[in-house]
Specification:
26 strands; alpha/beta; single chain; 548 residues; eleven-stranded mixed sheet
């Protein structure tokens, strides 16, 4: 049953009652100022008004406790404790960054609270801390560790054990042996930690098995200094070599608090993620938010729609699905009855308004998108079906510059330049595309992001991407496209494209494939796309009128 505290009519009634009280007091003060002497005006406004407010509040509070018997009632000290746990002052700024709960390994810790759901079984905060302390004692002493764990519970264990031991956690963008070895080459002596074998990896691997059943530990939580660089996130490498970006613990926690605030993620929420924990998006939503605010995370990384349905069904409501456009579209297009999903969050690639509305209708939920980058984490959000305007998170400030946009925020140690072209408007911005994805063909301009949205918005296109050839400068001669469209033929697809894009942007070649070579973060490495185009031509694409 929905809480009456969140009922708009209930809130309106309370607001109206107190508005009437304060308007009456203000009107009375005005009458005294006009018709009474200064003594009585001063006495009423400075003394008696407060007594009247207290007298009104006492019966109003008593009525609330009697009427709202099912609610959890908070007092003044609960408010103060909440501010300390969130690391924010009443004005929304971070409370003393080097003190308080933001230094805790789990600011959202609650005795008996659930951090992880694994195969339908809950793991409490206290038991998890016990597991962390036990693992920290047994793991090798190293300066840094490469965390490759796929199970979110084991990823959390390895991350927090590294925090306790003082080791930096390195998060490569994928589990390819070549990528891991590149990361290790820049961090001599790094220990590779994984819960599963990594094919072709030449480095030693410390396998993290099933943790021992630890006792509840509700003593003093390990403290992590706010300023400590505790992990390094790497860019996806979709446009080149993965780039490292160190992260401070306090910044990660504060960013997670702001993300949770934006979406209303609470301690009772369970997050189910199809993205892996090493990606900045998956790290923030499925790892840092649970640690920061006490929400729960589901340990698996479901891939197919049936797996997603199973993971959702094994955890209690409210449920939040953290996913990508490809996974969301696949889930919405499947013939599955979905359990209640509070809302879904999508990132890593553009999501069209049509795709979002279809998913909302088919899955009975709301669909939001996150805008962000590895360098800064999440910065803004929008409900995709409501329009193209993004809203910045609290404390984020964006400044247009000659070369693009700089963003600042309480959770950013320094201003971060964005690689995207933004169009500012009151209350937010529109995303026009990445500066390097702005193209000119035959004198006409377009962005790859916009072309991709139009391509994937065509009925029958499961997935697809436009690819610019290896040419210098903004001007290109011809674009290519790779599509997954089992029910469409080449001529049918080109005819649909002519309806939504200028003919100069029609792709040649147009390559049909069974699936796009997305990495674990849902990104498309450019090198693999060019390899696909080089191996095939549009004459090898599926015949027109391909059967469904």
């Amino acid at each position: 049953m929905r809480s009456r505290v969140h009922d708009p009519l209930y809130l309106l009634a309370i607001l109206g009652f107190w508005t009437w009280i304060f308007v009456s007091l203000a009107f009375g003060a005005l009458l005294l100022a006009l018709f009474a002497n200064a003594f009585w005006w001063s006495a009423v406004t400075n003394l008696i008004d407060y007594a009247i407010i207290a007298l009104v509040f006492v019966p109003e509070y008593a009525v609330r406790r009697r009427v709202l018997t099912e609610e959890e009632h908070s007092g003044f000290f609960d408010y103060v404790r909440g501010l300390l746990r969130s690391g924010l002052q009443p004005n929304g700024r971070p409370a003393m960054k080097t003190l308080g709960a933001m230094q805790s390994i789990m600011p959202g810790f609650r005795p008996g609270g659930i951090l992880v759901w694994r195969n339908g079984e809950p793991l409490t905060h206290g038991r998890f801390i016990g597991q962390v302390l036990a693992l920290a004692q047994s793991m090798p002493e190293v300066r840094c560790a490469i965390n490759l764990c796929e199970d979110r519970h084991l990823f959390l264990l390895a991350l927090c054990a590294c925090l306790v031991r003082g080791s930096r956690c390195l998060l490569p963008p994928d589990r390819l042996a070549n990528t891991i070895e590149q990361v290790a080459a820049g961090n001599p002596g790094a220990l590779c930690i994984s819960d599963t074998p990594v094919p072709d990896l030449s480095l030693p691997l410390w396998t993290l098995g099933e943790p021992d059943a630890a006792e509840e530990d509700i003593g003093t939580l390990p403290e992590i200094p706010y300023e400590r660089e505790c992990l390094v996130a790497f860019t996806s490498g979709s446009t080149g070599r993965p780039q490292p970006h160190p992260k401070r613990w306090g910044d990660l926690m504060l960013g997670a608090v702001l993300a949770a605030r934006r979406f209303g993620i609470r301690a009772e929420t369970t997050l189910i993620a199809t993205v892996h924990a090493q990606h900045m998006y998956g790290l923030e939503l499925s790892i840092m938010v649970p640690l920061a605010v006490g929400a729960a995370t589901e340990s698996s990384r479901p891939f197919f729609p049936a797996d997603v349905r199973r993971a959702l069904g094994q955890v209690p409501a409210p449920r939040v699905l953290v996913t990508t456009p490809v996974h969301l579209t696949a889930c919405a297009g499947s013939a599955i009855d979905w359990p209640a999903i509070d809302f879904a969050i999508s990132a890593t690639a553009p999501l069209s308004a049509e795709q979002a509305r279809f998913a909302e209708g088919r899955m009975g939920t709301r669909v939001f998108e996150i805008y962000g980058c590895t360098e800064a984490g999440s910065l803004a959000s929008r409900r995709t079906g409501d329009g193209p305007v993004w809203r910045w998170y609290d404390t984020v400030k964006a400044t247009p510059t000659d070369s693009g946009t700089l963003v600042e925020g309480d959770f950013l140690p320094a201003p971060v330049p964005l690689a995207d072209i933004l169009e500012f408007e009151e209350g937010g911005f529109r995303l026009l595309g990445r500066s390097r994805e702005m193209l000119k063909v035959a004198g006409k301009r377009a962005s790859l992001a916009d072309l991709n949205l139009k391509l994937t918005g065509i009925p029958g296109v499961v997935d697809g991407v436009f690819v610019a050839p290896e040419e210098e400068g903004l001007e290109v001669r011809r674009l290519a496209a790779i599509v997954v469209a089992p029910c469409l033929g080449r001529e049918s697809l080109l005819q649909e494209l002519r309806r939504v894009i200028d003919p100069v942007f029609l792709p040649r070649p147009l390559v049909f494939v069974d699936s796009l070579p997305r990495n674990e973060a849902g990104k498309l490495p450019r090198r693999r796309l060019l390899q696909l185009i080089g191996r095939q031509s549009d004459t090898e694409s599926g015949p027109d009128g391909a059967p469904c």
